[in-house]
Input
Amino acid sequence: MRCLLAATIGLTMSLAGVAEAGQAFDVIRARGTIVCGVNQGVAGFSTPDSRGDYRGLDADFCRALAAAVFGDPAKVRFVPTSSQNRFTMLQSGEIDVLARNATQTLQRDTALGLNMAGVNFYDGQGFMVRRSLNITSARQLDGATVCIQPGTTSELNIADYFRANSMRFTPVLIERPDEFVGAYNSGRCDAMTQDASQLASYRATAVQNPNDHILLPERISKEPLGPMVRHGDDQWFDVVKWVLTGMIEAEELGITQANVDQRLRDPNPVVQRLLGVTPGFGRALGLDERWLFNAIKAVGNYGESFERNLGSGSAIGLPRGQNDLWTRGGLMYALPLR
Ligand SMILES: N[C@@H](CCC(=O)N[C@@H](CS)C(=O)NCC(=O)O)C(=O)O
Output
């Protein structure tokens, strides 16, 4: 019922938002800044550093967008959003793009009227428990109390999983991330369920002693995370989609933050088109021909952003796994930039 109500309110707001705001891309260009909805704090995706600057894979993507659109990665305003209010904030035009570990689903596309611009992280839902619980599988969680963030796909998936396995659980729904982790830390729940990447992030940065906690091996869902925009803003949708694609393509071609200047002299016609040496893609998107050059110069290619924020160069230390390039056995495959 709550979901249905949210969907109806969302749809009404979506229509109102579009009527008021006009085409998002025109509004953004006139304003001179991109308003990017991020999460309130999940290390590796988006979290403010000691100076209040947002860092993470999603925050990097917002900076890449600003660099592509304005030639300046600083022309972005980060707005924290919760799991519950993120979609209405996008529908109402309070944010231009949602880059917030949001899973792409049929209901969000249709009932909520949101377009998904691609996947920047392939994930799946998991469980974290205290090692002292002495269990090794989610199938041993019958009767457990589980901390869940409301308004997430996790809330629906866990209900399906327990029903399918004839098990029961008591949900503890907590919206704010600090209170959510606090509830788990204080022993109010036996397990915490979330996208596995977010559990890994919490384990590395938010629980008292990481070694006292384990991620159970089951992944009970598919969670393709990626940026979203409103239905009806096709030009803006194209920009968001091709900046993400371009960052993946740059990794495929070995174009990095450090070598992008030299690669301007690369005779490969594919690289010349990508970096705007041969014009065309910029004009097609309504951007400067250096759109992708500027994005890569600002934050690096997809793999560099992954490593810095979530991978070996970060406190979280996730392997690339499914998020590696298709040429190395992962799922990251850039659509053709032609
Ligand atoms: N991918 C899932 C879950 C996304 C989500 O909101 N996860 C929570 C749990 S880690 C989160 O990001 N919390 C941080 C916040 O509320 O700022 C979805 O789109 O529903």
Notes: The pocket of glutathione is lined by residues 39-42, 82-83, 101-103, 149, 152-154, 177, 194-195, 198, 223, 225 (CB under 6 Å). The chain is about 40% helix and 15% strand. Confidence is low (pLDDT under 50) at residues 1-21.
